[in-house]
Amino acid sequence: MTRRDRRLLWLRHSVLMVISVVMLAPFYWVLKASITGENIYDYPPHLWPVRPNLFNFVDVWYLIPFPRYLLNSIIVSLIAVAGNLVLNAIAGYALTLPFIGRRSVIVLLLSCTLIPFQATIIPAYLITAHLGLLNSYLGLALPLLSTIVCIFVFKASFDAVPRSLIDAARIDGLGELRILLRVMLPLSTPAVATNVVLSFIWSWNNFLWPLIITRTQDMQTLPLGLARFLSYMEDTTAALYAFVVMVLAPGLLVFLMAQSAFMRGLTTGATKG
Amino acid sequence: MRWRRVLSSRFVIVPTVIAVTIVAWNVYVSLHDHGLLQGRVIDAAGHPVGGATVILFAHDFVTQVEKARTHTDAAGAFRFDDNDSHLVQLQAQDGGATSPRITIRLWFRAQDHVLQQPLRLAPAA
Hints:
By secondary structure, chain A is mainly α. Chain A is 70% helix and 0% strand.
């Protein structure tokens, strides 16, 4: 490595560190506010936590039915993740197979990504009501059971699997479903991780849909609990930030556990030429 | 060999550690949630005060409301057996003397707790 290369490396890393600090500063401030009692508008602000404690988290746990919201969010997210893995994998595999109108289906799916969920929320509500799934876990997870972006993540990953491998599996007598289960999915763990992370985070953070279809407090999820908590408490209290941290933590944990596979899943097929 | 690889992956280890921590915490809670709150009341000179009234206030979302009262014994000791809150305040009164309200933050509801510092009565100003 030449002297110029080394200098460029230092420069690049310095810029990246500055960007990282800028990106992480709000998270740090929320975390700091959650473990101290200080008002976020205090002036001058303290850079480091003063007398940190975890009692604000205890307050959140007991002041509202947090365990119930947490359980609801976990159940809904697990249903969404399971639905995404099964339906998206099948759909993604189908799109790699030759059939009449395949191109039209792909174009139709891609054009559907342009329609915002808010525009289809009334039909979605009516369908859910007709199915008798209002105020139920399955109803809460229904719109996120399959997402077009994740179908194409699977499709890109399956396209990268050599055709010869699939042909060999067919010659060995495997049906399409078993090819998907035994050949495609084991070779597409990054796509699986990407599906898990995206569907979990989308479902975990979903606010509008649960707001519309839940009828009782017992079925509400964490984002709704956060809105309810905000209506009870001042927006500057440490307990509110403790709540925010408790809502964020599971999503962050899932992302951190699967981040390397997640990144690979997003870039699979990107350089296929 | 495959099972060993699966078991040692972070997708198994992290949830397992979380599950074990939750179970251990719940066992600890179930062993220490009798609602016992103990302490002592002393006068300005540091002598124990018998017969003083101790009031327990519990947090009611945004305010503190009185939940229970008890009296100290001859040694100045008091005890509440049925605290079901995680955020309480205690205040002692004896005649015209009162102690400042002290806030006690507990790690869980009805946690057994012994006050490290006694409630010190001070004559009313």
